[in-house]
Amino acid sequence: MKFCSNCGSPVARRVPPGDNLPRWICDACGEIHYQNPKLVVGTVPEHDGRLLLCRRAIEPRYGYWTLPAGFMENDETTGQAALRETLEEAGARVELGAPFSMISVPRVNQVHVFYLARLGVLEFKPGEESLEVALFDEAAIPWKEIAFRTVATTLRLWFADRARGAFTFHAEDIS
Amino acid sequence: MKFCSNCGSPVARRVPPGDNLPRWICDACGEIHYQNPKLVVGTVPEHDGRLLLCRRAIEPRYGYWTLPAGFMENDETTGQAALRETLEEAGARVELGAPFSMISVPRVNQVHVFYLARLGVLEFKPGEESLEVALFDEAAIPWKEIAFRTVATTLRLWFADRARGAFTFHAEDIS
Predict the structure, then answer these.
(1) Does the global pTM surpass 0.95?
(2) Is the Cα dihedral A118, A111, A63, B17 positive or negative?
(3) What ipTM goes with this model?
(4) Fewest Cβ atoms nearer than 10 Å: which of A5, B127, B133, B168?
(5) Residue B92: which pLDDT band, with cuts at 50, 70 and 90?
(6) What is the least distance, in Å, from the CA of A18 to any CA of chain B?
(7) What is the pLDDT of residues B130-161, one digit of tens each?
(8) Which residues in chain A have their CB less than 8 angstroms from residue B18's CB?
(9) Which residues, in sequence order, are CB contacts of B169 under 8 Å at separation 6+?
(10) Which chain B residues have a beta carbon less than 8 Å from that of A80?
(11) Coil, strand or helix: which one is B99?
């Protein structure tokens, strides 16, 4: 951030009065520009014990496999974001279950949330951000080609929960 | 948003190529300025069956009661945000439990997350954003003076879970 989005003047970085963290401040119009973490929301789409993964057609991690997920938009709920991303990236209309994982990634100022989801009919196809979309059983998961640690963690938690016969909500951090 | 925070030129609002939502775009430098929901994170601090509430010293909802919570900052985890806000607003060092509620509020582009928390020692005092801090048993909760619907919902879920003897994670939306 170099300029004030409100008045176009250059901004300076310092701790505002009454605050304890440095912010981008506009001395011309007084605006304080807060920057906060973003939510990335997606699903773990399951069909007959297999999970639907997307191979990324975009950077970062082009060519690596991921669960369908993306940045939550304004004017939607986390559940709506999860359904939208699953449709956009995997061409799949899933039945949404409960939130399954919430993983903080402070290094990139993100919080990732994945929902349980059931893929009823076998309809899916790669969206613009995916090279291919495919179902994997546990033995076939391409663990060495998973795009993000939040996805690998969520997949491991999912198979562990399935093995013990109960899915619960998991909160984790990736440092 | 009126000006590009990268180069200071005026921005225009339209759907970028390959996108399907209008964004603020800078035609001078090409920057697309995405706007996304913010996370508000807090705790439900419990001591001997009573819950710690803060009376707000700031707008919105000056004078109304709330659970300690606030905007998550960059460079922290959701758990760290919950502990920080509880210390800042209620002067209380709690022992953090599991996430308890996650409530989308699309009308204001926020997602609120509250953690279970235990207040061990009886030490608390109002921070700069609180007029007073006090413990309430269920019968004393000032239901008509609760600042936000996410807080009232979280409190109701908490007492309902306590009544049935098990706390689980709850996801809700407030439209």
Answers:
(1) yes
(2) positive
(3) 0.96
(4) B168
(5) very high
(6) 8
(7) 999 999 999 999 999 999 999 999 999 999 99
(8) 128
(9) A98, A99, A168, A169, B98, B99, B100, B101, B102
(10) 106
(11) strand
